[in-house]
Amino acid sequence: MHPSILWLLVAVVLAAAELAVPGVFLVFLGVAAAIVSAATFVLPDLPIAAQLGAFAMWSVVAVLIGRRWYEEYPVETSDPLLNDRARRLVGETVTVANPIVGGHGRVRVGDGEWPATGPDAALGARMRIISVDNGILIVEPV
């Protein structure tokens, strides 16, 4: 099989993998594979070491260009806290699961428990999350 077809197949597989598992990374490797496919079409006797070297070089170039693109043109979202579960909790009312004594305890959030700091509170007391610090909820009485 001609090397350009193999590299084109690699490009298609990488692009399909990006669609299946979006991470905005494999697409850049797919672009690099497509460039190497074009190079091997023009230079069919290009040694495999040169092909792999070109793929590595173009992968780095494509990733750097893509990274710069996303820095200059960030993707707008209607939910900026989508992947920040802790910050989404700010403002929620929670129940004390382990009494807060000496400023430290645990609160029930949904079906789980989180470490919390705040004023002393008895088991079952209602608290409001005012902020999050390194995975520890900072709470105040409701």
TrEMBL record:
Tagged with keyword Membrane: yes
NfeD-like C-terminal domain mapped to chain residues: 87-141
Domain of life: Bacteria
Organism: Sphingomonas mucosissima
Subcellular location, principal: membrane
Membrane-spanning segments: 48-66
Signal peptide bounds: none
GO cellular component term of the entry, any: plasma membrane
Topology relative to the membrane: Multi-pass membrane protein
Lineage, opening ranks: Bacteria, Pseudomonadati, Pseudomonadota, Alphaproteobacteria, Sphingomonadales
The protein's name: Inner membrane protein YbbJ
InterPro entries per the UniProt record, alphabetical: Membrane_assoc_protease, NA-bd_OB-fold, NfeD-like_C
The UniProt record lists the keyword Transmembrane: yes
